Amino acid sequence: MPASPRSLFVVLDGIDGCGKSTQAARLAARLAHESGRAVQHLREPGSTPLGEALRALVLGREFAPTARVETLLFAAARAQMLSELVAPALARGEHVVCERFHPSTFAYQAIAGGLPEAEVLDLLRRWAGDPAPTHVILLELSADAARARRDVPTDRIEDRGLEFQRRVAAGYARYAELVPGVARVDAARGADEVAEDVWREVARALR
User: The CATH number of the domain where 86 resides is what?
Assistant: First the structure.
């Protein structure tokens, strides 16, 4: 489904602790100010009632789904968000800023979880790929630096520890190698510097 002219769908992604929520909020506010348009700030999985229910299921500690099941649940939540929120917002001429998208599923479930790369990418593109983001920005931070920023683990996936997070970080780098057009921003610096780099990636599309 094509977006309205100049409507942007920006994804910010990266390892837990990289600053996604902070940067997404800052980008959404600046994008609204600079463009004069409404901006939807979403998180993934979540944002819709179904997405939030699936988020609680997959991140909670009550069950232990396999990496394959996690991928299907994340794809389902994403497909619902795209249909229910993203496509209508773009059609209205609004912008969308989303925390997490395909890079997360690829990094956590394919690379760190051991699933075939091509299989996961194909599933995400076919079942949760429309509308596609206009921008995918990875906030890159080492797993060790990210752990130093976080408190105790807050969900089942964070429980997996530092070595798992190191594989996740490698998964994000691998995603950027495989998928054209992914922007990579050094998230180890101060929030203001990171925000400026993120804005530069997005601002070009507003000219």
Answer: 3.40.50.300
How many separate domains does the chain show?
1
The pLDDT tens digits of the residues spanning 144-177 come to 999 888 877 888 998 899 999 999 999 999 999 9
Query: pLDDT tens across 68-96, in order?
Result: 999 999 999 999 999 999 999 999 999 99
| Residue pair 142/187 in contact by the 8 Å Cβ criterion | no
Which structural domain range is residue 190 located in? 9-206
| Cα 192 from Cα 158, distance rounded (Å) | 27
How far is residue 166's CA from residue 25's CA, in Å, rounded to a whole number?
26
DSSP string, the chain: -PPPTT--EEEEE-STTS-HHHHHHHHHHHHHHHH-S-EEEEESS-SSHHHHHHHHHHHSSS----HHHHHHHHHHHHHHHIIIIIHHHHHTT-EEEEE--HHHHIIIIIITTT--HHHHHHHHHHHS-SSPPSEEEEEE--HHHHHHH--S--STTGGG-HHHHHHHHHHHHHHHHHSTTEEEEETTS-HHHHHHHHHHHHHGGG-
Contact 14, 141 (CB under 8 A): yes
Inside any domain, residue 1: no
